Amino acid sequence: MRRTFPILITVVVGWVLIVADFIPHKPFGNLGDDFALYFDIIAVFAFILGGGNLFRIHLTKVQKKKKDWPFSIVTLGGFIVMLAAGLFKIGNPGGIQGDVAAVGSLFNDMYMQIFTPLQASMFALLAFFVGSASYRAFRAKTTEATILLIAAFIVLLGRTPFGLWLTSGLTGDMSFLQLPNLTDWIMDVPNLAGQRAIMIGIALGVISMSLRLILGVERTYLGGDSD
Amino acid sequence: MTNGAMKKQSLVERLQYIDRRIIFAFIAVAVIVPLLIGAQLKEKTTPIVQAMFDNVEGLPEGSRVLLSYDYGPTTAPEIQPMVDAMVRHCAERKCKMYMMAVWATGHNLTGETIEGVLRPDFPDLEYGVDFINLGYKAGNQGLIRLILVDFKTMYSTDANNIAIDDFPMMENITSLRNFDLIVSFGGGFPGIKEWIQFAGDPGNIPIGGGCTAVGAPNLYPYYPSQLVGLLGGAKGAAEYENALIIAYPKYEDYPMAGMSLMVSQTVAHIVIIFFIVFGNVLYFILRARGMTKEGLGGVR
Questions:
Q1: For chain A, domain boundaries
Q2: What dotted CATH number matches B47-254?
Q3: What region, left, alpha or beta, does residue B278 occupy, with left being phi > 0 and alpha being psi -120 to 50 degrees?
Q4: How far is it, in rounded angstroms, from Cα A51 to Cα A87?
């Protein structure tokens, strides 16, 4: 029963929504929109579930002094302070009715002064890793690697004004060889073809997986094997 | 590798295994110094960005533009310049701007635009009449699908919890179909793809986009039939700023964030290219000396 009932819900809802798309009359006509609204309501509760889960897991970790438990104190502290600042709108110029992200509120100050620099710093580290990874990976060891190397070289230079300056002498019939133009060609032709192929492949995969779900063949989303 | 073995290595071999901290130091200098100098670099506007600009430029006065902040602080340094440039352009065109976010982290960033661009540079624009902040709502693509049909089901108040019907610019807004242009900033999920799939295509609404440089290649297949234009990374922002300066020369001496970032990006790219070329020269020297492909490494 623990598996049959969820499968039944998935199969019925799946088929009803597919049928509803082809019948623009009541009761089918608005079913898709109604379900979108249900989804939005459930999404709001998912925040409560997610927050509660985060709190429970880290509290347990601190209580049992599991590995790296001091980090959990930081997580819990950040979570509680940010939650309180947002829920009670501490320091909000508009009071309890004001915008949670109003300029001058504690929530916004913490977001702008703590959260933003931390996240931006983490992302900025990518520049360093890209630098060292390029040095390590872009070696013309094979034909494929050489093609990748040439493409990377053109795009890296073509995406800067330096690339245009370097090849600005190529005018007239040769202007297609200017690095920015070559970069555009790489983006518009080989990249586009590859991306489209990947997208079509993913779409076909999604269709086949959806069919498996609504036919009740795919059951891994239910978890364990026991009934 | 033992010390004895290290001593036997030639200079070329040692350079082959260059310490990654040296590369990090070069990149740091390449990025930081141009930012400190504060120079700006103009970018020639490419067709995909020009199309976005022309679309906004072609909007008649009073057109409704929905700006969705679908990004967070991680990508804000790259995306915020393009948001600011486009908001400036919309304000010049006297468009009505509706700001919202399908990312929770995007809500706070709407304040950056209001307080950083609209209030100081366009003091005549009035909240609720010329621009409005609708804030963040949960639901991802479900939210987009829902507001395509009924906007006020989800947005009964603005971000300040004031009834939406109290604002003149919200009159006659019943669904996303009432907007002349939707621009999503941020290439993650949910983002530009979801706006196309759940609003642009079913509602026949023009969609524009702005995303990080790494996210742009994934969105090229949607241009030009499903995406009116796309701004990719700091370069996209700088290109849009360039188009803005050409159309509105009063911005000629104005500090533009995208153009400032392009100086750092250009120098950093040159440094990376130098290391790639340097690494390959070492590689071929060592290969000429008879070392196997497998024996040739890179950064430690």
A1: 138-218
A2: 3.40.50
A3: alpha
A4: 13
As a whole number of Å, the CA-based R_g of chain B is 24
- ipTM of this complex: 0.82
Count of alpha carbons within 13 angstroms of residue B191, beta-carbon side? 20
Q: How close, in Å, is residue A66 to chain B by CA atoms?
A: 30
Backbone angles phi, psi at A118, to 5 degrees: -65, -50
The predicted model scores a pTM of 0.88
Q: Chain B contacts of A156, Cβ < 8 Å?
A: 269, 272-273
What is the maximal distance between C-alpha atoms in chain B? 81
Q: Count of CB atoms within 10 A of residue B225's CB?
A: 9
Closest CA to A101 of B218, B134, B150: B134
Amino acid at A179: L
Q: Tell me: the pLDDT tens digits for A170-219?
A: 888 888 899 989 998 999 899 999 999 999 999 999 999 999 998 888 88
Query: Across the interface, do B146 and A40 touch by the CB < 8 Å criterion?
Result: yes
Q: What is the pLDDT of residues A142-164, one digit of tens each?
A: 899 899 889 988 998 888 888 88
Tokens 């001496």 -> residue:
B253
